[in-house]
Description:
Elements: E1 2-7, H1 13-24, E2 27-30, H2 32-41, H3 48-62, H4 66-75, E3 81-84, H5 89-96, E4 102-108, H6 111-116, H7 126-140, H8 142-147, E5 151-154, H9 160-173
Parallel strand pairs: 1-3, 1-4, 2-3, 4-5
Amino acid sequence: MIICLTSLARAGKDTFADYLVNSYGFVQLNLSDVLKERLLEKGMEPTKENMSLLGDQWRSKFGMDIVMRKTLEKAKAFPNVVITGLRSVEEVKYFNSSPEKVVLIAITADARVRFERKNQDDEQSWQDFFNRDNRDIKNKGLDKVLNMADYTLENNFSSKEQFYHVIDKVMAKLNFKKLY
């Protein structure tokens, strides 16, 4: 099974994915991994901004599903994978055409909550943070991807444990049991 997670920045994709890895035995892949690898090959810093810009360049040159195509090739090596970072309708259409069972889960959270979740590695200003959202919506159609989800989870929780409880409910619907 492949579970794909989509959201605007800092809504909880990585928290969800980490929980699946630790509690359900999934392997995590991020769409930005292939971008990060390419930037490092070119001697460039793999910042969120650089990865976003490279992703935009690749999508305009090779098609909107290029990052998903490269990521799904890696996913074939594992029985259960969680992929984070879907941003375009074409990425969803590409994985829907794959023979593997794929579920798309959207995670939402209020703008202020998302901004407050930034960590020290993410020094974006309010304007820069939301400019990235706007680029993802305008250039990639992220708003449409969020609406295509099989499940939508709201994550305005103050603790990870509250979010984990909601994740467990979705995983039960998908017939998965925790490892412990």
